[in-house]
Write a structure and sequence with these properties.
CATH class: Mainly Alpha
Strand order of the largest sheet: 1-2
Organism: Sinorhizobium americanum
Structural class: mainly alpha
Order of helices and strands: HHHEEHH
Protein name: HNH endonuclease
CATH architecture: Orthogonal Bundle
GO molecular function: endonuclease activity; nucleic acid binding; zinc ion binding
Helix content: 40-55%
Radius of gyration: 14 Å
Distance between the termini: 24 Å
Keywords: Endonuclease, Hydrolase, Nuclease
Largest sheet: 2 strands, antiparallel
Shape: globular
InterPro entries: HNH (IPR002711)
Number of strands: 2
């Protein structure tokens, strides 16, 4: 239990530093209320769930990555899961480049959010 609180604190700090945007896709994320987030961006609940804020280990835990501030970023659930579903997951920097190239072509998230400058909470 204690470790999950620490991870949540690290995730929240990372999300704050990232202005509430995913480390990989740079889209806004939600932490508390998916329905309000969905209403704000005209998304269904299923679509909004993709943007849930998660703690992402830059260096995977299974490969020795620690729950430390320098190793934790905030990523949307979709980016976090997608990175780790691959048979050979890319390192964080390579995955970020991959996601951004897909975003530029409109081939990452099925629904693009209207970009806003204010951080989300």
């Amino acid at each position: 239990m204690r470790n999950s609180r620490k991870l949540k604190k690290l995730r929240n700090k990372a999300a704050e530093g990232q202005l509430g945007r995913c480390y990989y896709c740079r889209e806004p994320m939600w932490d508390e209320d998916p329905r309000a987030f969905g209403e704000r961006f005209s998304l269904s609940l299923a679509e909004a769930l993709r943007y849930r804020c998660t703690a992402e280990h830059l260096h995977e835990k299974c490969k020795g990555g620690a729950d430390e501030e320098r190793n934790i970023v905030a990523a949307c659930d979709f980016c976090n899961r997608t990175r780790h579903l691959a048979k050979r997951p890319k390192d964080a920097a390579s995955f970020a480049k991959y996601v951004q190239s897909r975003m530029k072509r409109g081939k990452w998230h099925p629904v693009r959010l209207e970009r806003q400058r204010a951080p989300l909470r």
